[in-house]
Design a protein that fits this description.
1559 residues; seven-stranded parallel beta sheet; 14% strand
């Protein structure tokens, strides 16, 4: 199922590489998309305001959101947004005879106005030679008739003009219907609305709201439909990035709003308001219009957004950038990197399994049919499919090269069945949906509901799967399936065993005809074997029952000795106990541990009971339900067992309180009350702080001074005198006697204070006195405050705090004062939160009544904090302790009674001891368990040996297991090796003569079919078992499956007011449903849109047609724990059209050059397949199923060195010949199209459609020179072929890339090129990155039954040897020529290596000569061009070995080089490792030596006539079609073969041609 798998963590360096790579890919991907800011820049758009008023042919359906009950009324449209019927044009009304002659030409053309002549001249009298003139106005009857007709004619003309507009729109959409089918991965059609204009940027004129739609066509009714899809609407965010001075912060919120309410561009009710809000939130300087573009809008606002729904065809914007960003974020956040990507990017080493054993003969024979014990290929299979399944178990990724028609889809379908049987989640994806179209249908039918195929925006397949899953869940259970699986698995094992036996017998029968019997390395003739059996029957026949043939003794003598000895080492009673499956004593508590656990449990229970009794509580601890009922005096409550951490947090909090005094409660109440009550406490705190500051000042000033007052009680009275005295000291420096005489109070003050025994003598001394006075006054003030607020509550008075400095002690009280003063503000909620976390109800804990004052309530709360809550916490600690030890005890019970252990005496004793807490009994039983369990090693070894023996000799194994006769003894029977030899030879001899070969062969076929049937059943049951196993334990998933189904039904058309909420709910259900479906099939672009690489992970990701997917698709690999990458580097690769190489190079330099070793391979033309192949060795599919052999032969020679095995019988098709060459005599390339060739192809196609042999056949036309020719042919087909025929015959026209992954019964190839009469065209080689070879390979391999090569060239006079076009045409003329030439080469070659090199050069168009004699020497291969020749020497794999021979070869080369010969040497190790690269090197060296391709007369093969009656019939009919459509003579040439074989063309002078441009 689609799961959130986790990947291994990576190191920082690996993360840096991966992030750099994906940043590079992100930037590279953005180079592909040029932002479009003006709607007129699209290739096609259509505004609904321009929709013709043609109700007979056009129906428009809006998506107005209405009330639920109204949305169901008159809902005719379903998903239809727009339907357009192809209009029928009407003839002009016939004019009356009375004015017919007066009408001017063009009266029946609705584009023109009808008019009449003013007058007509008649010759009235020949003799007088006078003409009569008649004016139109002369006849009132004629005028009236004309006016009546004119009115009808005008009405007709208006209707035809509307029909013309309708027809234009129909034609556009009809063409787009086929274009989107052909290029669905790169193009899409959308409906859009809300066109944004910017006064400051005139180029901006683009809709902001877009919604993907689709096209459908009904050929019976000739109606084209635009259909709604399930895709959500989107904002065209690229547009906002180009605006300046807007509120970018609001865009995310607008996106959220859009997703929440799902505004549709065609909703006229809710969408306008959304658009209005959108533009105004983007900028205040904006205006919204529902009536098009307002006049002079730019004078009033900068931005305009106006309502204008329209349809647009554009390049598809996929989810690659979003997916890559999610990957980068995930790597940064988690460091997770899937192993395959790490291997590709970071390199390193791969663990290669070292224990791979050599396959046995029966394994090799089984592998040929894809049979394996552990791999569940439910459909017909082969060795390659089996190997893929094996490799993916061993490696992180498997790369599969799938040449054309080699059953890639069948292979993937088979692998899906296998992976589903393993319970794995799978994503199957491809660059195009063509490769996936029929994949689900190929999956075994019983497993199809486990797969969802999302090839477009429809949810139909998802609904089918959900229906299937829910239906299956309702009728069966995983338990039932497991039972069926076990039976099927046993049946399957037996079939495999029988197949192996039968195949071995067949092999032995065949082998026995020409070889001896071989037993254990010893040879026996059948006669000798029979004699041995007869002579030793009495002494050696004691091994019972049947044995598997051709096997040596399964056990060594030492193993047999150990096996028989175990008969006495284990008593039958012990074996009974051991067979039950006793627990390992290490899993159980040791006796001391059990005693400790039991005692702790009892102690905790006692402490809990004591706590309840001491506090007169009643505590009911219900362990099974994990809850506790607590009955207090203030009430009762029940809590679920709290978390230990929550109890600790609460206990720590209440423990932070010391003894809570009355003043603290008052402070809390007055802090809560606020106002003056609270201010008093704040004042006290402030005064204490001030007092402390002053006290510190006085202390520092008086340090070292002794200040004494004669009367400390009246100290305050001295303040004013000393202030006056200070002033005098400050002004005059001293106090005069006169001053003292006049102010006695000054003198008294001075006498009342001494400093160090002296009177005050300065202003500074006055300050000391005044500060001391101020300190005394402030202490008294503080004391008063203190007494009023704190001292009144029976606590210490201020001066009781400290005799000398009470303020310092008072300051320590400030935190406590503050705590209680702010307690309600800061801590009360914290207390409630901690109570709630534990589960204590505050109303019962605090017992507050509604009549309680704040003070009483606070008193109750703080009393609970101080007294009740700590005790409750302690009780909870005890409850958790009881639970822990009880769980430990119960776990111990579960272990000893698990499974069948209830039948074990020792386990029952342990259970009783545990239940009763009997420590001694537990210790005794535990000791007995240890004794018996220690014999498991012996028993396991016994079973292991019996397991080895049983498959080979089941009855012998059974006799030992049940201790029967001599096989129950403790010693091995004598001469056991000879006895086994006797048993084998006896069975072999009997087997050789027992069954006839034909019966075995028939049985083998029957068992193979039965194997496939049982494997399919097992895969089905296993796949569903894994799903049910998951869903049965997941109620949420089951509810989601039903919920999604019902919600989708309720959404209906999606225009109800509740639709957005229902869609949101459906998405929530969908997220859970996705985890229920194990296999998803969708194109890469769709997968990147709907899946999130952060969350959606799969066990296996399979990428088909990976050679077409560029590196931006690497994002899809991140979702796979393991990868199967299927592609073909010989087929079309990413084209990277429009991407500038310099920009790519710059991005490489910025992001990956210094981080990734193979950074240069990550470019715009590299495919996923190319990248994967650098790390994982490709495995090639070789069996070709699609085409008849003659068709695939060209690709096999061109690209695969004839490695493909064509398996289809040539007689399976009646379309003969299978390959047809057809030359268009007067075809002429104009630009990149060839109109005559296009006409010929369409005529041939039409002719084929008429022939009964082509009934039901599908057709395709491929242009080998880009898209222009394809468009010309497409237009011709639209004119000449009925749409119904186009659809039913699946007629598709395009380039090679459009057809990759697709196939048709009949394919027409259009070469397009033509000669210019000046000589041969410029050579068309393989092209850069072999692009042209790949194109031709794909094009020539799409046909199943017949391939037409249509061309306008003379291949011998207008094409050079080695030209790809010539190769294709020559092959079409004579498909057998190359095969015959290859046989000639094989006959002349002295080694397979030499033959392969000669054939490779021949296939490239070179003139070769084998075994050429030069004097006394002979050369392997000589390549000739005119009078030049170069020797090719093949080193390796033949008799060129040994030092003497090597020296002789080197001497020969030295001598011949003196005579002017040039040598090119090829090593076998080089060629077979890199065949194409090696031949490319040789060709470069040949080119440097002036050796070019040329016709090879040594291999000219006469082409026999290939015309059949069917082919002649098609040609004659095509010629007739062309002749009927043209006045010209027939343009077809039926004598191509004769012209092509004319040897006089060989010496034609070659010329150059302009460089071929292929887009």
């Amino acid at each position: 199922m689609m799961t959130e798998l986790t990947y291994p963590k990576s190191n920082n360096k690996q993360q840096e590489k991966i992030i750099a790579l994906f940043q590079f890919i992100k930037e590279l991907n953005q180079l592909k998309y040029k932002p479009i800011l003006n709607i007129q820049d699209y290739p096609w758009y259509f505004s609904l305001s321009n929709l013709p008023n043609d109700p007979d042919n056009i129906r428009l359906f809006y998506r107005d959101r209405v009330e639920e009950d109204k949305s169901e009324i008159n809902d005719e449209s379903g998903d239809i947004l727009l339907s357009i019927r192809k209009p029928e044009f009407q003839k002009c009304p016939s004019p009356d005879k009375i004015f017919y002659d007066w009408l001017l030409p063009g009266w029946d053309d609705f584009h023109k106005n009808a008019s009449v002549r003013s007058y007509i001249k008649y010759e009235s009298d020949k003799n007088r030679n006078k003409n009569k003139v008649e004016y139109f106005r002369d006849s009132k009857e004629r005028i009236a008739a004309y006016n009546r007709w004119l009115q009808k004619r005008n009405e007709w003309a208006e209707k035809q003009k509307i029909a013309e507009q309708t027809n234009k729109l129909f034609t556009d959409l009809y063409r787009f219907y086929f274009e989107l089918q052909r290029e669905s991965e790169t193009k899409e059609i959308i409906v859009a609305n809300g066109i944004l204009c910017d006064r400051n940027k005139s180029m901006i004129k683009h809709p902001v709201l877009t919604h993907r739609v689709s096209l459908d066509y009904d050929p019976d009714e000739n109606i084209i439909y635009i259909l709604d899809t399930n895709m959500p609407s989107e904002l065209y965010s690229i547009l906002f990035q180009s605006l300046e001075d807007i509120n970018f912060n609001i865009i995310n919120a607008l996106n959220d709003e859009l997703q929440k309410n799902d505004y549709h561009p065609l909703d006229r009710n809710d969408t306008p308001n959304f658009l209005k809000i959108l533009i105004h939130q983007l900028s205040y300087d904006s205006v919204f219009s529902t009536n098009g573009i307002p006049r002079n809008w730019s004078e009033r606002a900068r931005l305009l957004l106006y309502w204008e729904p329209c349809y647009i065809v554009r390049n598809r914007i996929d989810g690659t950038v979003k997916a890559i960003q999610q990957i980068i974020e995930n790597v940064q956040e988690t460091g997770e990197i899937p192993a395959p990507i790490r291997d590709i990017v970071c390199g390193g080493t791969v663990e290669v399994p070292s224990d791979v054993k050599e396959e046995t003969i029966d394994e090799l024979l089984a592998a040929t049919s894809g049979e394996s014990q552990d791999i569940y290929l439910a459909k017909e299979a082969n060795r390659e499919q089996l190997e893929i399944a094996k490799r993916i178990e061993m490696y992180n990724a498997v790369v599969v090269q799938g040449p054309p028609g080699t059953g890639k889809t069948h292979t993937i379908a088979n692998l899906i069945g296998h992976f589903l049987a393993q319970g794995k989640s799978i994503l199957v994806t491809s660059h195009t949906k063509k490769a996936l179209n029929v994949l689900k249908d190929k999956v075994p039918a019983e497993l199809q509901n486990l797969c969802v195929s999302m090839l477009d925006e429809s949810l139909i397949d998802m609904e089918k799967s959900v229906d299937g899953i829910t239906a299956y869940m309702s009728k069966t259970t995983s338990f039932e399936l497991k039972h069926e699986m076990d039976k099927l698995a046993a049946q399957r094992r037996e079939i495999i065993k029988q197949l192996a036996d039968i195949r071995r017998k067949i092999f032995s029968i065949i082998n026995s005809e020409c070889s001896c019997i071989v037993y254990n390395g010893e040879e026996f003739t059948p006669t000798k074997a029979a004699k041995f059996v007869i002579n030793n029957a009495e002494d050696l026949s004691y091994i019972p029952g049947r044995v598997r043939l051709n096997y040596p003794l399964p056990l060594t003598f030492e193993q047999l000795l150990e096996l028989y000895r175990s008969n006495g080492e284990i008593s039958e009673k012990d074996e009974v106990e051991l067979s039950i499956g006793l627990p390992d004593p290490k899993q159980l508590m040791a006796p001391a541990e059990f005693e400790h656990c039991w005692n702790n449990l009892q102690s905790a229970k006692m402490r809990l009971d004591k706590t309840a009794a001491d506090n007169k509580w009643k505590i009911e601890n219900i362990l099974e339900e994990r809850n506790v009922h607590i009955h207090l005096k203030s009430g009762s409550f029940t809590i679920i067992y709290p978390q230990y951490a929550d109890i600790v947090a609460l206990k720590e909090y209440v423990s932070s309180f010391d003894k809570i005094e009355n003043w603290m409660k008052v402070a809390a109440v007055e802090g809560k009350t606020g106002g003056a009550f609270r201010q008093r406490w704040i004042t006290l705190i402030s005064e204490i702080n001030k007092l402390c500051e002053l006290s510190e000042l006085v202390l520092s000033e008086q340090f070292g001074l002794d200040i004494k007052f004669s009367n400390i009680e009246s100290i305050s009275q001295l303040k004013k005198p000393f202030e006056a005295i200070k002033k005098i000291f400050t002004e005059k420096g001293k106090v005069s006697k006169l001053t003292l005489l006049m102010h006695k109070e000054y003198e008294n003050a001075l006498r009342s204070v001494t400093i160090n025994g002296n009177m005050v003598q300065s202003a500074k001394d006055c300050d000391l006195v005044l500060h001391f006075i101020e300190l005394t006054e402030m202490r008294n003030k503080c004391s008063a405050y203190w007494g009023e607020l704190i001292g009144i509550h029976n606590t210490l008075q201020f001066f009781e705090l400290d005799q000398r400095n009470p303020e310092l002690v008072a300051k320590k009280w400030i935190p406590y004062i503050n705590r209680y003063l702010k307690w309600y503000d800061t801590e009360y909620q914290e207390l409630l939160s901690k109570l709630a976390a534990v589960g204590f109800p505050e109303n019962i804990i605090f017992n507050i009544n509604i009549t309680d004052s704040d003070l009483v309530a606070t008193d109750k709360i703080l009393f609970s904090v101080e007294n009740l809550i700590p005790k409750l916490c302690d009780a909870c600690f005890e409850i958790l302790t009881i639970e822990k030890h009880s769980n430990d005890i119960n776990t111990l019970k579960d272990i000893v009674m698990s499974g069948q252990r209830g039948h074990s005496h020792v386990c029952v004793s342990l259970y009783e001891a545990i239940s009763n807490g009997d420590i001694q009994k537990y210790a005794d039983a535990y000791s007995e368990l240890e004794r018996i369990y220690s014999k498991y090693t012996i028993l396991n070894k016994r079973k292991e040996l019996l397991k080895i023996l049983a498959p080979i000799a089941p009855d012998w194994a059974d006799a030992i297991e049940n201790r029967l006769g001599i096989h129950g003894m403790s010693t091995v029977p004598s001469n056991i090796e000879d006895a086994w030899k006797w048993k084998q030879l006896n069975a072999i001899v009997a087997d050789i003569t027992s069954q006839p070969y034909s019966e075995l062969q028939a049985e083998s076929l029957r068992l193979s079919k039965e194997y496939r049937r049982v494997t399919a059943l097992f895969a089905e049951k296993s796949g569903w078992y894994h799903l049910l196993k998951k869903t049965e334990s997941n109620i949420d998933m089951r509810q989601a499956l039903q919920g999604w189904k019902l919600t989708v039904q309720r959404i209906g058309k999606g225009t109800g007011k509740r639709a957005p909420a229902l869609k949101a709910r459906a998405r929530e259900y969908m997220a859970k449903c996705q985890h229920a479906v194990p296999c998803w099939i969708m194109p890469i672009n769709r997968a990147l849109e709907v899946l999130n690489p952060k969350q959606n992970r799969f066990d296996i990701v399979i990428i088909d047609e990976a050679s077409q997917a560029d590196i931006s698709s690497l994002a899809i690999l991140y979702m796979g724990k393991k990868l199967i990458i299927v592609g073909d580097d010989k087929q079309v690769s990413p084209m990277a059209i429009g991407i500038e190489v310099d920009k790519v190079t710059a991005l490489q330099q910025i992001y990956i050059k210094d981080k990734i070793k193979i950074y240069d391979l990550f470019n715009e033309k590299t495919s996923i397949y190319d990248i994967a192949a650098t790390t994982f060795q490709p495995l090639m599919l070789r069996e070709h199923f699609r085409s008849v052999p003659e068709i695939i032969g060209f690709s096999n020679q061109l690209s695969y060195n004839n490695k493909i095995k064509a398996l289809r019988d040539a007689s399976s098709s009646n379309l003969l010949p299978a390959v047809v060459n057809f030359r268009v005599a007067d075809g002429q390339r104009i630009g990149k199209s060839n109109p005559k060739e296009a006409q010929a192809i369409v005529a041939l196609l039409r002719a084929c459609l008429e022939q009964p042999e082509y009934s039901g056949k599908s057709f395709g036309i491929i242009s080998l020179l880009g898209d222009e020719q394809a468009k010309v042919i497409q237009r011709l087909m639209e004119e000449k072929i009925p749409p119904k025929e186009m659809i039913s015959r699946r007629i598709l026209c395009g380039n090679a890339a459009n057809f990759q992954g697709d196939e048709r019964d009949v394919i027409f190839l259009s070469i397009v090129d033509s000669g210019d009469g000046t000589g041969p065209l410029r050579m068309l080689g393989f092209g850069p990155d072999e692009a042209y070879r790949k194109r031709y390979n794909v094009a020539a391999s799409r046909a199943r039954d017949q391939l037409w090569v249509v061309y306008s060239l003379d291949p011998f006079t207008e094409l050079q040897p080695g030209d790809l076009r010539k190769k294709l045409i020559d092959y079409a003329i004579n498909p057998q020529a190359s095969e015959i030439a290859h046989k000639v080469i094989d006959n002349k070659a002295e080694s397979p290596f030499e033959s392969d090199i000669a054939k490779a050069l021949y296939d490239r168009g070179y003139h070769i000569e084998q075994q050429r004699q030069v004097g006394s020497y002979r050369l392997d291969i000589v390549v000739i061009c005119g009078n030049k020749a170069v020797a090719i020497e093949c080193d390796g794999e033949r008799w060129h070995s040994g030092e003497a021979k090597i020296r002789e070869d080197m001497e020969r080369q030295t001598i011949l080089e003196r005579l002017g010969w040039r040598f090119i040497r090829i090593r076998g190790s080089e060629y077979y490792r890199y065949p194409d690269e090696t031949i490319d090197r040789v060709i470069k060296e040949l080119d440097a030596l002036g050796i070019k391709p040329e016709d090879n007369q040594d291999f000219q093969v006469e082409a026999h006539t290939r015309d059949t009656e069917l082919l002649s019939r098609v040609k004659v009919r095509a010629n007739a079609i062309l002749r009927d459509e043209s006045d010209e003579e027939p343009i077809l040439d039926f004598n191509t073969i004769a012209a092509a074989l004319n040897s006089s063309n060989e010496e034609t002078c070659l010329d150059t041609y302009q460089q071929l441009e292929i887009s």
